[in-house]
Specification:
The complex is a heterodimer of chains A (291) and B (280). Chain A has 291 residues and is mainly alpha-helical. Chain A has helices at residues 2-56, 61-71, 76-100, 107-145, 148-154, 159-197, 202-212, 215-241, 246-283. Chain B has 280 residues and is α/β, with parallel strands linked by helices. Chain B has ten helices and ten strands. In chain B, a hairpin with a 2-residue loop joins strand 1 and strand 2. In chain B, helix 4 crosses helix 5 (125-138) and helix 5 packs across helix 6 (155-166). Classes of the chains: A mainly alpha (291), B alpha/beta (280). Chain A binds chain B through residues 142-143, 146-148, 150-151, 153-158, and chain B through 59, 62-64, 84, 88-89, 91-92, 94, 96, 98-100, 102-105, 115-116, 119-120, 165, 169.
C-alpha cells in the first residue's frame, strides 16, 4: 500500500512539476516578448527625441568638431586599407570562375558593381560600428556609470542634445565619405590585382566596368550608407545611455552596440537593396544586361 | 502695486515641496509617501543608512529621477509635469555636487567649471575665465590646477572642483550628495567649512545627503532621517526624525539613536538570523 501510495504521490509531483514547468516557460516567454516590446518602444522614443533636438538646435561647433574628427578622420585609414583588400580579394575569388567561361574581361564590372552597391557601404558601416560605435557606447556608458550624464542634466544641458545629436550628425554626414573611400580603394585594389597581377587587359577591364556600373549604383550605395550611419549612431548611443553599472555593464554596452548595429546594418541592407532595385526598374524598365 | 503682495507670497513659499512622493524601480520600492518642505535659506541634512533612498530623493528633487507617485514642487512648479525645455530652465537654478564629483573626464578643470557658463550665458571667454578663477579661489584651489584633467586630481580636489562647477551660475539651491564620503577627516572638515562659507556668501538653500554625523551637526539647521522601507511595516512613515540637529541626542526613537551613535543593533541580529537560516 505504502509503495503504491508513494508511486501515486511521485506521479502527482511529476504532473505538478510538468505543469509548473509549462507555466514557467510561458511566463519566461511572456517576459522576453514584453522586454523586446519595451526595448523597441524605448529606442523609438530615443530616436524621436534625437531627431526633435536635431530639428530644434544644431550642435555647437566645439562639440561637433571632435565628433567629426573621431568618426571621419580617424576612420579613414582603416576603411581605406580594408577597402583595398576587399577589392583584391574579389578579383582573386572571381577570376577562376570567369576564366572558365572566358569572361575575364568582365571582372571589372563584377568587382566594381559589388563594391559600389554592396561591399563598400557595408564594409564602411561595419568598420564604423566596430571602431566608432562600440567606442561611443563605452564612452557614454562610462559617463552614465560615473554620473556624468546626470551631471549634464543637472546643469541644464540636455544629454541627448549635447551627446547624441553631434555623434548622430557625425555618423550621418561622414559615412558617405567613408563609403566613397572604401569604394575608391576597393576599385583601385581590384584593378591592380586584375590588370597588374592577373594580366587582364586594361582597356577591356574599364570598358566593361563603365558599361555596367551606373551612377545609380553609386548613388544607391551612398544612400544606403546614410541609413547605416544613422542606425549605428542611434543604437550605440542608446546602448551607452542604458548601460548597466560597473565594468561588466560598460563592456556589455560596447559589444552589444556592435552586434546590434551589425545585425541592423544587414537587415537594412536587405530591405534597402530590394527598395532600390524596385526604384531602378521603375525608372529604367528595360534594366541592365550583364551578359 | 499688485506685484508686492505676490512677491511676499513667493518669498514665504517654501522653495522645495515634496508631496506624497513614492519612487519604485521595477518591483523595488525605494521611497513611500514622503512629505517634506524646505524653506528658503534653510540647510537641511538628509541622513539615514545606505540604501534608504536619500540619494534617490535628492535626484527626484532635481528631476533626474521621475516619481512613481506624488509630486515635487520647486518654487511652486511641479517638476515632473514640465517639458524638457522648461525643466532645463528650472535646473539652472540648482547646483548639484555629486558623490564622486562627476567631473567630465574629457575636459580639464577650467572647461569643467566653465561648462554651465558656456552653456547658459553669453559671457566672453575672458569674463568666463575670471569667474572660473574666482570660483576656484573660493574653494581654495590655485589657478595652476586649471589645466589639469580630473584624473590628475586627488579626491578632495575633485570634490572642490565639483563644488566650484556647481556654484558657477550662483544657484538658488545647492544639493550635496554625500559631500564628505571617501575623504580623510581633514578634507571632510574642509568641505564642511566650504558648505558653511557658501551659505554665508550666497543666500542659498541647501540639502545635504550624508551619513556623516559630524557633517550633519556642523552644517545643518534641520535634520531629516529616512529609514529603509525593507525594515518598515506597510503603514509606518519613512521619515523617522525631523528636527534641528541639537535634538538628535535627546531623541527617544531607538532607530535614530542607534544611527547617531553608530551602533549595529538589529542589523547584527538580522545577520545572525540569515546565517542560521542558511545552516538550517
Amino acid at each position: 500500500m505504502a509503495s503504491g501510495h508513494g508511486a501515486l504521490e511521485r506521479h502527482g509531483n511529476h504532473r505538478r512539476s510538468l505543469g509548473q514547468g509549462i507555466v514557467d516557460w510561458v511566463t519566461d516567454l511572456g517576459e522576453m516578448v514584453l522586454g523586446w516590446i519595451v526595448a523597441l518602444g524605448d529606442i523609438t522614443v530615443f530616436c524621436g527625441r534625437t531627431l526633435s533636438w536635431l530639428a530644434a538646435r544644431l550642435p555647437r561647433r566645439e562639440t561637433l568638431m571632435p565628433c567629426l574628427y573621431q568618426i571621419g578622420v580617424l576612420s579613414l585609414p582603416v576603411v581605406a586599407l580594408t577597402g583595398t583588400f576587399i577589392g583584391m580579394v574579389l578579383a582573386v575569388q572571381s577570376y577562376s570562375q570567369f576564366k572558365v567561361a572566358h569572361l575575364e574581361t568582365r571582372l571589372g564590372a563584377v568587382i566594381n558593381m559589388s563594391l559600389v552597391r554592396e561591399l563598400g557601404p557595408v564594409l564602411a558601416a561595419t568598420m564604423l560600428a566596430g571602431r566608432v560605435g562600440s567606442a561611443m557606447a563605452a564612452e557614454l556608458g562610462t559617463m552614465r556609470v560615473t554620473e556624468q550624464i546626470d551631471a549634464l542634466s543637472s546643469m541644464g544641458a540636455n544629454p541627448i542634445a549635447y551627446l547624441v545629436v553631434p555623434r548622430f550628425l557625425g555618423c550621418l554626414l561622414l559615412i558617405p565619405i567613408l563609403t566613397l573611400m572604401a569604394d575608391f580603394m576597393g576599385v583601385v585594389g581590384g584593378w591592380f590585382y586584375s590588370t597588374q597581377i592577373l594580366g587582364i587587359d586594361n582597356h577591356h577591364y574599364w570598358d566593361n566596368s563603365q558599361r555596367f556600373v551606373s551612377a545609380f549604383d553609386l548613388f544607391g550605395g551612398l544612400c544606403k550608407s546614410m541609413f547605416f550611419g544613422a542606425a549605428i549612431a542611434l543604437i550605440s548611443c542608446h546602448r551607452g545611455f542604458h548601460c548597466d553599472p560597473g565594468a561588466e555593464g560598460v563592456g556589455r554596452a560596447a559589444y552589444s552596440a556592435f552586434v546590434n548595429s551589425f545585425v541592423v546594418i544587414l537587415m537594412l541592407d536587405f530591405v534597402l537593396g530590394i527598395s532600390l532595385d524596385k526604384l531602378y526598374f521603375l525608372l529604367w524598365p528595360q534594366g541592365p544586361s550583364f551578359l | 502695486m499688485a506685484s508686492k503682495p505676490e512677491t511676499a507670497t513667493d518669498e514665504n513659499r517654501p522653495l522645495v515641496g515634496v508631496r506624497q512622493l513614492s519612487v519604485q524601480f521595477g518591483r523595488q520600492n525605494v521611497l513611500r509617501g514622503i512629505n517634506l518642505t524646505v524653506p528658503r535659506g534653510q540647510t537641511l541634512a538628509l541622513i539615514g543608512e545606505s540604501g534608504c533612498g536619500k540619494t534617490v530623493l535628492l535626484k527626484t528633487i532635481i528631476g533626474l529621477v521621475r516619481p512613481t507617485r506624488g509630486e515635487v514642487l520647486f518654487d511652486g512648479a511641479n517638476l515632473s509635469s514640465l517639458g524638457d525645455k522648461e525643466l532645463t530652465r528650472q535646473r539652472i537654478r540648482f547646483g548639484f555636487l555629486f558623490q564622486q564629483a562627476a567631473l567630465f573626464d574629457s575636459m580639464n578643470v577650467e572647461q569643467n567649471v566653465s561648462f554651465p557658463l558656456r552653456q547658459h550665458t553669453e559671457k566672453s571667454p575672458s569674463e568666463i575665465h575670471e569667474i572660473v578663477v574666482k570660483r576656484l579661489e573660493e574653494v581654495g584651489l590655485p589657478e595652476m590646477v586649471m589645466h589639469k584633467k580630473p584624473a590628475e586630481l586627488s579626491g578632495g580636489m575633485r570634490k572642490r572642483v565639483g563644488l566650484a562647477r556647481a556654484l558657477a551660475l550662483d544657484p538658488e539651491i545647492m544639493l550635496y550628495d554625500e559631500p564628505t564620503t571617501g575623504l580623510d577627516p581633514i578634507m571632510s572638515d574642509v568641505i564642511n567649512e566650504l558648505i558653511l562659507r557658501t551659505r554665508k556668501r550666497y543666500p542659498v538653500t541647501s540639502i545635504v545627503v550624508t551619513h556623516d554625523m559630524h557633517t550633519a551637526r556642523k552644517v545643518a539647521d534641520r535634520v531629516v532621517m529616512l529609514f529603509p522601507l525593507a525594515h518598515l511595516k506597510p503603514d509606518d512613515p519613512q521619515i523617522i526624525f525631523d528636527s534641528p540637529p541639537d535634538k538628535l541626542d535627546s531623541c527617544n526613537d531607538k532607530r535614530v539613536t542607534q544611527f547617531v551613535n553608530g551602533e549595529a543593533g538589529e542589523r547584527l541580529m538580522e545577520m545572525r538570523d540569515l546565517a542560521d537560516s542558511r545552516v538550517r
